[in-house]
């Protein structure tokens, strides 16, 4: 067993000492590539320090590239630890990867080797531009929030080591529902019947057959579109990114709902757009605040980003009247709307509400759709639907930045659609998600304590639970206590604060039920209720 | 027959008149969706104007979305012409696509309908940001150069209507060499053996199996890489785009070879980088100019973009000594090199030269590779190989802008690689291209006139032919005359000027032989020789 010893009388902080001991372990071979480090709790017990100290040590090792921390698994020693900066270069043969553990670094046999007379390699930190740095930081915030709940890990510590964690955290469709067999047949069929169009550079706007199917689907949603109104992208986020890049310019801003999908925020940052969150009132994005923000921004407002149907993270459905109010405000200001309809494919909506893109001739609405949730994420197919005069520059920009999409996947998706298997699949997942949503509402009513307030849940598979507590840092603190209690109970949920670009108005949790059966949902809410009572009952 | 009449006494320019007459033809139904417009030559003859006037009219219609012009085909009337701005809105049901031809517009029955009280839709031109606009303009320059030779079209005018055009223009691998069957088997195998990893969101860095294979290939090229040194991208251009975005910032510049791949220039523009072309001397990029440019730019120099092996468009191989000189200059200036090794996979190089990424520990080299040329373009798979501290932020940026890649394609490519079929395929195409290159050199010696100077052609499948004539606009003019003669002879080639970000030093042609059999190459050079003599013999 690897047991690091720390010197409490030394001036060096304990976290630094712990990181150094682990590094020595890697360099001397006591720890090998792929070895799991002990959990932070266990390491804290062994070494006699706080878990916070262990976490800081692990974070430092991670940042230096010595260990990898996967969401939902222990921290492991990397296969190829990078040479430490202070060890200097050791020749061209090890420029990218360092020598094996134990052969390099200040403590290894290579330490005596003379420094070569070349300048040290550039560090990315010196060179990364401001927009990229902001996007990467936004993503790191999401990742660090993601690391906290450790959803699929074996439970840490004494509580319930016998049970699998129930994962309300991950936003992954249910693998058990993937139409793998039917899709495989469609992919083979596409490669057989027209290998030319599946294997060559295609139109940067996408495979004609798939654009045709998507346009037809848009018309089913009330959006009057032909194939020339469709640009196929590498998933919905790529679509958001292309629109951001088209509209970005010095000083320009993206207005968005708050809370919203943090992935879109990262894409806005990557284009250099300033993010302006517009808070919700009980109906959705507040049109009065939207109007005053647009007035203030003037020509700097590049776009308004909306996810009106079962928004990630709140699951909120913005009603028809509010959609019209928002359209009217944007229309007056002459600002394009980027409508993220990521849930539309699942067909929960019926005719109750219509996409904004189907409603108003006076405003440009760039509609984003995706097959990631309705088919499977690995396909990486999304699209933008808009008027041709917008699709044309977007297509040119797509071509300028990645030529075009994967024609094989696009041809396969079109063949899958044609075969009727997609319609069957959609009915199947739609039924499954409706059942799961009903089960979740019932389980929430049974198990959540009265101080936890379940948001509306009329469709989709995201639920938002508001908890008592103040805004901003207090919200994050309450969420972190609840996460810890959830961990003890064997249930994972996402904290609400990272979804806010503005100040979080209070603690909340996002629950995703897409990947769970009804019985798992019932048990998950039981555990969540217990965790909430444990964490918050004394206070409220 | 549709015969537009122009009024030579009117003040309106003839091109505008012609465009308006054609529009009326569309709106009255005299021209229907899908109808081919006459060739510019024929229309010029009919109407009695210059071809330049016809081209301007067609371009205006194209820009307004009424006709489509595909490279290598006639201009056709679009299926859904957009409503003309001056016709006003006609209700939500036709927001994206206009009413059918003849039903809208000032001359149709709908003209009497009152204007609805909504503002007109936003025009993209008002909104597109400066970086996106520059990238789109760069791409349009490429497209308009591409439209000139009309490679696969039936011949225009009287010359040789009986013969298929021989296409040295297109940069497409030979479809006849695609390993469709073996790849289909590999794709099925990947979906069968591990549908989970092929169908879900995977790591944004790429499918582990494919990163493993790519790292191994990098080591075969002398680059010391493990899987953590590899980020899988959606083709080489996407890799160039990610690096550009990572390094872009206000005032920053990309230094590049001149001539170079115009796709990379468009990606640099899309990130807002200023493009600084560094001219060639006979060995490649001139290191003295590189040094003085880097000195002048200082911290603003974001990267130096190089394609040292069989560069597109010249096919030039930068030798080992020049590679070292360039590395030394960049190393002193502390500027990262973006090395585009798009040809490396085809294995022409042997051990004669090494990728820059394998050579110098003192300079950061971000290596870009691709399977588009060695496997097939529809797969859209490329990669960046670099040290982990660069791969990590690049991966985060990739995740921030498109989550991750198509896992199905990546798993299939890894399976294809594993099966041994990739090695077999590479040997096969490598042999084929070697034979074709030899055939091209021999045919060039036989058929090209002495004033046409064939550049070095030691590998790859691109040839560069220098023609007599002055720099800049004169070069473009000579190229355009040669294009016209090529068209008459039934051969297509790419003009050299669009590959220059700086001033073209003189007229040139790029010939791609990847898609042609030896006999086609022989006949193509015969025609090219005839075209060059026809166009230039009187002058030289």
Write structural notes for this entry.
Two copies of one chain form a homodimer. The longest helix of chain A has 27 residues. The two termini of chain A are 44 Å apart. In chain A, helix 1 packs across helix 3 and helix 8 runs parallel beside helix 9. Chain A is built from 16 helices and 16 strands. Chain A folds into three domains: 100 residues, Arc Repressor Mutant, subunit A (Orthogonal Bundle); 155 residues, Aspartate Aminotransferase, domain 1 (Alpha-Beta Complex), CATH 3.90.1150.10; 239 residues, Aspartate Aminotransferase, domain 2 (3-Layer(aba) Sandwich), CATH 3.40.640. Chain A has 540 residues and is of the alpha/beta class. In chain A, the strands form four sheets. Chain A has an eight-stranded mixed β-sheet, with helices on both faces. Chain A has a four-stranded antiparallel β-sheet with strand order 12-13-16-15. The first copy, chain A, is globular, with a radius of gyration of 25 Å. About 9% of the residues of chain A have low confidence. Chains A and B meet through helix 4, helix 5, helix 6, helix 8 and helix 9 of A and helix 4, helix 5, helix 6, helix 8 and helix 9 of B.
The overall pLDDT of chain A, averaged over residues, is 82
As for the CATH topology of the largest domain in chain A, it is Aspartate Aminotransferase, domain 2
Number of domains of chain A: 3
* The CATH homology group name of the largest domain in chain A: Type I PLP-dependent aspartate aminotransferase-like (Major domain)
Helix content of chain A: 40-55%
Largest sheet of chain A: 8 strands, mixed
């Amino acid at each position: 067993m690897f047991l690091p010893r720390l010197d409490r009388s030394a001036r060096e902080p304990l976290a630094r000492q712990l990181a150094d001991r682990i590094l020595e372990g890697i360099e001397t071979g006591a720890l090998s590539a792929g070895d799991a480090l002990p959990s932070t709790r266990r390491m804290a017990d062994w070494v006699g320090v706080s878990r916070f100290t262990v976490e800081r040590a692990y974070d430092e090792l991670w940042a230096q590239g010595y260990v990898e921390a996967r969401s939902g698994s222990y921290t492991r020693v990397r296969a190829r630890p990078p040479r430490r900066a202070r060890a200097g270069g050791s020749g061209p043969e090890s420029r990218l990867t360092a020598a094996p553990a134990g052969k390099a670094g200040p403590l290894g046999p290579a330490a005596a080797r003379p420094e070569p007379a070349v300048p040290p390699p550039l560090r990315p930190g010196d060179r990364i531009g401001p927009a990229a740095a902001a996007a990467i930081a936004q993503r790191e915030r999401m990742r660090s929030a993601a690391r906290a709940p450790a959803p699929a890990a074996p439970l840490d510590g004494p509580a319930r080591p016998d049970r699998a964690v129930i994962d309300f955290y991950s936003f992954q469709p249910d693998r058990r529902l993937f139409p793998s067999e039917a899709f495989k047949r469609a992919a083979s069929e596409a490669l057989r019947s027209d290998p030319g169009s599946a294997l060559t550079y295609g139109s940067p706007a996408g495979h004609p057959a798939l654009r045709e199917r998507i346009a037809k689907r848009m018309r089913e949603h009330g959006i009057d579109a032909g194939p020339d109104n469709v640009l196929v992208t590498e998933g919905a986020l790529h679509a958001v990114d292309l629109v951001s890049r088209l509209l970005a310019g010095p000083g320009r801003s993206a207005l968005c709902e708050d809370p919203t999908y943090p992935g879109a925020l990262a894409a806005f940052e990557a284009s250099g757009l300033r993010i302006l969150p517009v808070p919700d009132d009980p109906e959705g994005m507040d049109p009065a605040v939207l109007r005053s923000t647009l007035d203030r921004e003037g020509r700097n407002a590049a776009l308004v980003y909306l996810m009106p149907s079962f928004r990630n993270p709140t699951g909120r459905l913005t009603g028809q009247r509010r959609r019209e109010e928002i359209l009217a405000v944007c229309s007056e200001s002459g600002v394009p709307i980027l409508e993220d309809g990521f849930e539309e494919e699942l067909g929960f909506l019926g005719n109750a509400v219509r996409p904004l893109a189907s409603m108003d001739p006076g405003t440009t609405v760039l509609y984003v759709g995706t097959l990631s949730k309705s088919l499977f994420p690995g396909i990486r197919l999304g699209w933008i639907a808009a008027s041709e005069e917008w699709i044309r520059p977007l297509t040119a920009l797509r071509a300028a930045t990645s030529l075009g999409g994967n024609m094989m996947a696009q041809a396969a998706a079109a063949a899958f659609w044609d075969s009727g298997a997609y319609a069957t699949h959609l009915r199947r997942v739609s039924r499954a998600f409706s059942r799961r949503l009903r089960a979740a509402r019932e389980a929430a009513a049974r198990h959540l304590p009265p101080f936890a307030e379940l948001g509306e849940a009329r469709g989709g598979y995201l639920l938002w639970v508001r908890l008592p507590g103040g805004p901003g840092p207090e919200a994050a603190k309450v969420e972190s206590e609840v996460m810890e209690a959830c961990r003890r109970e064997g249930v994972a949920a996402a904290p609400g604060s990272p979804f806010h670009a503005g100040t979080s108005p209070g603690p909340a949790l996002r629950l995703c039920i897409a990947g769970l059966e009804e019985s798992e949902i019932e048990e998950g809410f039981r555990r969540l209720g217990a965790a909430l009572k444990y964490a918050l009952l004394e206070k409220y």
